[in-house]
Design the sequence.
């Protein structure tokens, strides 16, 4: 039978990250590719303790085993509002109607796209941005226009130009320890973004899975803080990087009218997120494990980022420049020599090292000589080894490029 | 700000079921509306026992807490293939590439629609059918054409006519203890459906959440059985009705090419289903709890269905006819007098009884004088009481209708 698949899938071939996942089980592989938190920091002991009580409490598990409301348990929505407040977001005018629990932060992205985007609508995103957003936006038939960024955040003039030109429905940003660059927008830049969004009526999806993982520098408030009337920003966060990805829970906070529409969209997708996951996270937050566990993990992130930073300086060619993030899990780099990091990837794989090539993060095919390196999930020794291998490989690749470009005598 | 929501949401207002969920917490309400399994049969003790071991096994929980593959753990996919085999499906040519774990059976429906349907494509479904399917199909901009059904299943001539007229991408059926009618297609009818699907190249989504809940009559093989080369049927089932809805797990089994596309579609939606839920269900199946628990629950379903059947005979007017299912959780009825079951609903609610009005299950506005009654989730006493209240109310409603129709003297 000749299957006639939908247009939604026509451009989707599996993200690089998910495909690389398949080779990770190969023994000896060092992965700088994924987006996992430090596995050493997963809260085995605390969740074991919580589960022992939870599953024995048959009254509470009545809620766990039955159908739940699509938007999530009210108790958990209260708790995530409290969490948002602790991030600096003003929740004084909000109630549980302003929050929705989703099956990971990824589902928040899917729902906000489903809520706003028709085939052919334009959405804006930083150039480069999270490849999962690009893929999901493409599945909705969105035209994606990239907004350029500098050291401070989005180039406001470019953003305004793109808004005027494209009349976008949505702007997607990862303003703190961005995926893939690790960079953080300044407070002034966030304020300017919200002002433009309000002026032109553009919804902003602020994706913030990483901001708690700050290892240096001064905290910057979420972009949502500048949306003082809770009008144009949906704030998205996740428990994947700070508790556990396998539990698959995230949340969105925003205008009640938008959250209501996202809830209706979620009904048709999975009815509700796992009640078991919701109760585990609810108890995790109630017992106050959230911040202490993050605190305990920061030295590990600091050490690993330091190892990667040092190794890049030691082993990489001088044609390579890279970011120096104050947190998160990624470093982003670019070769000034136009080598193809996608072609280099298969050579790296032969040497048991993986990363993500830069083009995955651009909607317009740029990023050919860039790459994203994850530092959260390998030991300092492995990071040093992998960066050394990549450094030697990139020097060889550059030398080969130059040879080819030198005319024969 | 004037929010410009997508066309996908334009027709979605929350399904009746999900909205009714909100009133269920009202004290004294008797619900014949939902689609929950018998709450008395939820496996509190077994899952408590499984959880006690699972969360203490930090090696295994390494898989639980980290990111997992989008299609689900291979061990669990093996187990659901075994389950499908026990349902009579020939899995001899299949491997784990033919199965995907989804976040409830509902997500399987969403993914198969995403995989095949473009805006404006036609999908076929029985008239009436599961309202969640109608809503999700509408969110993809599908045109839904209803196929008429008789005692035996779909009217094959009508199905062929609709296939020829609409060139549909997909046929959606709940052939065993259908939602909402409770009826079961005969084996011959299933065979004929598959033959037409193969002849005209139409994908069939066979949704089978209820077949294990058989309380009388002879088992009929899944429709998938007649798709001998594993070509045109995606078989969907769920753990919601036979283990727990709150765990949110289901699965699809079908051609590898289709399952692969559904996997890519799932990447952009929620990356993977909860690993915690997957491990709980994996152990539940490994320990052989699946069938014994169902066996133990059947007398409860049998008793409740019997109570409803008896009460309908006792209290309902003779203008009402209804189905007599051999299992599942629903009875479907229709008034020959053209009373409006949607209008009657608000009166029933005042009397603390809820059901679902018939129009929710038709794509074309029919079903005005029909209703769906769930018998799985109230005690025999409550069922008797609720049916008595509805019976009296419908007699009153009919009398009022006839009065209005009698010309003034």
Sequence:
């Amino acid at each position: 039978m000749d299957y006639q698949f939908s247009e939604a899938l026509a451009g989707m071939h599996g993200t690089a990250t998910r495909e690389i996942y398949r080779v990770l089980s190969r023994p000896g592989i060092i992965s700088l590719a994924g987006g996992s938190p430090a596995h050493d920091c997963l809260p085995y002991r605390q969740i074991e303790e919580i589960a022992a009580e939870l599953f024995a409490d048959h009254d509470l598990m009545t809620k766990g085993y039955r159908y739940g409301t699509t938007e999530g348990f009210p108790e958990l929505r209260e708790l995530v509002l409290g969490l948002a407040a602790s991030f600096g977001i003003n929740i004084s005018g909000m109630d549980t109607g302003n929050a929705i629990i989703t099956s990971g932060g990824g589902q928040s992205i899917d729902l906000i796209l489903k809520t706003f985007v028709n085939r052919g609508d334009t959405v804006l995103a930083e150039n480069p941005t999270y490849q999962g957003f690009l893929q999901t936006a493409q599945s909705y038939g969105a035209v994606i226009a990239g907004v350029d960024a500098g050291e401070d955040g989005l180039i406001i003039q470019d953003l305004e130009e793109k808004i005027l030109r494209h009349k976008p429905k949505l702007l997607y940003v990862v303003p703190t320890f961005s995926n893939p660059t690790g960079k953080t927008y300044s407070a002034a830049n966030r304020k300017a973004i919200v002002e433009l969004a309000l002026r032109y009526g553009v919804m902003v999806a602020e994706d913030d899975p990483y901001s708690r993982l700050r290892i240096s520098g001064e905290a910057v408030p979420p972009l949502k803080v500048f949306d003082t009337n809770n009008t144009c920003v949906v704030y998205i966060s996740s428990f994947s990087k700070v508790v556990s990805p396998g539990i698959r829970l995230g949340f969105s906070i925003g205008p009640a009218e938008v959250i209501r529409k996202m809830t209706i969209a979620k009904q048709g997708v999975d009815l509700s997120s796992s009640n078991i996951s919701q109760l585990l996270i609810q108890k995790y937050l109630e017992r106050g494990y959230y911040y202490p566990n993050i605190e305990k993990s920061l030295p590990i992130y600091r050490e690993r980022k330091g190892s990667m930073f040092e190794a890049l300086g030691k082993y990489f060619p001088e044609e390579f420049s890279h970011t120096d993030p104050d947190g998160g899990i990624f470093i982003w780099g670019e070769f000034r020599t136009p080598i193809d990091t996608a072609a280099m990837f298969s050579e790296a794989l032969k040497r048991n090292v993986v990363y993500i090539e830069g083009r995955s993060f651009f909607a317009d095919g740029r990023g050919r000589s860039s790459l994203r390196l994850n530092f959260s999930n390998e030991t300092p020794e492995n990071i040093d080894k992998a960066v050394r291998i990549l450094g030697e490989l990139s020097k060889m690749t550059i030398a080969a490029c130059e040879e080819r470009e030198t005319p024969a005598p």
